[in-house]
Design a protein that fits this description.
This protein has 472 residues and is an alpha/beta fold. It has 15 helices and 14 strands. The longest helix is centred in the last third of the chain and has 42 residues. The radius of gyration is 25 Å and the shape is globular.
Amino acid sequence: FIQSNLRDMEHSSESAKKLVGDSYISQGCNSLRSADNAIKHLVEQRRLPQQGWSDLNIERCLNEIALMDSNNFQGNVGAGEREGRVYSRLVQRRNYHLAHGMGRSGDIAANQPKAAGSALMCRITEGLVLDVLHNAGCNKTQACLVLPVATGMALLTSLLFLKQSAPKADVVIWPRIDQGTCVKAPQTAGCHLVVVEPVIQGDSLVTNLQEIEELLRQYGDRVLCVLSTTSCFAPRTPDKLVQISKLCKEYNTAHLVNNAYGIQCSRCMGLINSAAQQGRVDLFVQSLDKNFMVPVGGSIVASFDKDTISRLSQTYPGRGSSGPILDLFITLLSMGAEGWNDLLKQRKQVYTHLKSRLQEVAVTFKERVLDTPDNHISLAFSLTQANYKEGTQLTELGSKLFLRNVTGARVVTCAGSSKTVGHVTLQHFGCHSNTYHTPYITFAAAVGMTEPEVDTIVHKFSQILRKISTVV
C-alpha cells in the first residue's frame, strides 16, 4: 500500500502543479515522500526509528492502517455478528477506527482476514518491542508476544501454557516477594505455591538458593516451574537468576521470570540475558504501563525460543483488544530510539540523584538509606521508631505524603498483619520476609521520573519528618 501511495502521489502532483505551481508542489511532495518512506522502512525493518515521529505522521500512518480493515472499506456491508461496528463516534475516534482487535479464536497472534491493517500493526509492534528488548540488554531474545492483559494475567497465561507440557506438575517454587499478583497467579492456575523465604545479607533480602535446590529435589517431577523476580521494592533485591537458571537446567524444570518493570533497568535485563545463556529461562513477563508510560492493560511475554512464543499464542482463548498494542505502537514511534535511550539514561541519573538526596535527609534525621546495591530501581529509607515523637504511627507517613500529592511511597513496619491468599499465608506482608529487622519507607526511581520531581518529593518528606522527629 505504501508503493501505491507513492505512485498515486506522483500522478496527482502533476495536476496539482498546474493549480499551485511547480516549486511549491514539489516541496510539498518531498515532505509526503519522506513520510511515506518512513512508513516503508518501518514495515520492512520493524525496528524503532532513530528519531521519534511527529504526532501528525503517526496519525497519518494509523489512518492508512485503518483503511485496510474491512469495517472501513467504502461501501462495505457486514453480514456477520462481529463486523467492527462501533456505535459511538467518540469511541471510534478514540480507537482510530480500529475495531477488530487482535488475533483469531484459535491464536492471539493470528492475522484476521477482515483486519489486514490491525494485523499489520500488531506484527510491526512485536518487531518494535523485540528491538527494545535487544537494546535494553536482552539481546538473545528471539520472540515476544504483546498481550492485551496486565502482568498478573500474563503470568497466569504463561503458567497455564507450561502446564500443557507437564500436566501432572502442580508445584510452583516461588522466592518470596510481597506482591499479591505473584501469589494469586499460580493458585489460579491450579498450582500449589511453595514459598521460599529470602536470606538477609546486611540490609538486603536475597535469594535462598540452597532451599530452592532442596525443594527441586523434594518435589521432583511435580515442580512446574520456578517463578523468579527481577524488579522489586528494596530491601528485596533481584533474584539470583543465573544460579536459579542453572538449577532449572540441571533439574529439567521450567523457569518463569517476573520482570514486571525491569525493561527500564539494564541490570535486570542483563541478568535475564545471562541466565538464558548459562542456564534455562523459558519465559519472561513485563508490564507495558510500568516500562513505557502507557495506560494499564497490556504486557509482554518474551522468550529465547521462537517456537515457545508461537505455541503460547495458540493457548490464548479468543481474540483480544488491540487497545494496549495501539497505545504501545503510538508511544514507541513517538519516542524513537533516541527518545527511548534518553529515558533510560535519565532514569539512571534520577536513581543516583534520589539516593544522594535521601542520604542527605538521613544524616539530618539520624536515619540511613539501606544498603541494597543490587537493586537499581528502588531505595529504602530506615524509620527508627525511637527517633519520633511518642504516639507517632510510622504508617501515617505514607498517608501524609499522599495528602501532599506524593504517591507511590510505601511504609513497611515489619510488624504488620499477615495476609492469606488461597492456601498461602505470608507473615508481615509487605516486607518480603518473616524476620526483617528495620522499618522503612521505599521510593522508586522509575522511567519518566525527573530530578525536579525527586527534589519535590524529598522536600515534602523532610517537612513531614521535621514535624514528628525528636532529633532535630
